[in-house]
Hints:
By secondary structure, the protein is mostly helical.
Amino acid sequence: MRKKQKWFRKTIFFLAVGLVTFLVLFPYLWIVQLSFKTNTEIMTTPFSLPEVLSLDNYKRALETLKLATMYGNTIYIALFALFISVSFSFMSSYCISRLYFKNKKISNTIYLYFVAGLTIPSYIMIFPIYRITMSLKMMNSRWSLILPLAATTLALDTLLFVGFLRNFPKEIEEAAIIDGCGIVRLCTRVVLPIIKPILATVIVFNIIYFWNEYPISSVLINKEDMFTISLSVSMFKGRYSMDYGGLIAATVLITIPEIIFYCFFQKYLVDGMTTGAIKG
């Protein structure tokens, strides 16, 4: 009876995993098969297989998109925004979780101030960001995106860092301070190597967000030479028509690097989340 129960449980488990996997993969597989269809087939028979496997959509996407320029803009913006976001969020999180205040409510108030940013959608801030960018005369520049994108990720990064650091043992840092380690060396040589799992998690979340971000980019960037990868997809949308085939093919091309990046770093992402859960 026990063997039958174990077999039944395993069967149910694998069926559930298979179902969830199918539900997750189905939208992407559907997009891939749509990318080989003509615009007429996409509109009339979206769920059927393509009658003829044609690469015309991909050829049109490659001819329309300046991939080298767009990838260059996106990588430049993502790396600098990542550096700013991670640096500031780590420093603020370390202060919140390690510095001693005469009034303990001060650290909690600062922490709640940062975390409160999670309750405010970044899209609500588009108009103020636009006005500030116009005042600083930074429109259609990479830095017009780098600073807002870095700012919008501070709340989540602080939440993750503080949650990890508050449960992180202080004995190692105290031993390093006794040995004469300064604050800069303490953070770079002692703390950062130990918090690699959560640091990798923050980096993965931020990179994926920067890669996919569209609403803020569509407001602050108008020049084609400054287009990011996600913003370039709008080139297939005309005033009175839309090239669905080219749009879908461009979407597939855009998501391939993201999937490869996630496959390489998924181990660190899982380690960071599970380590944080165990420490919490």
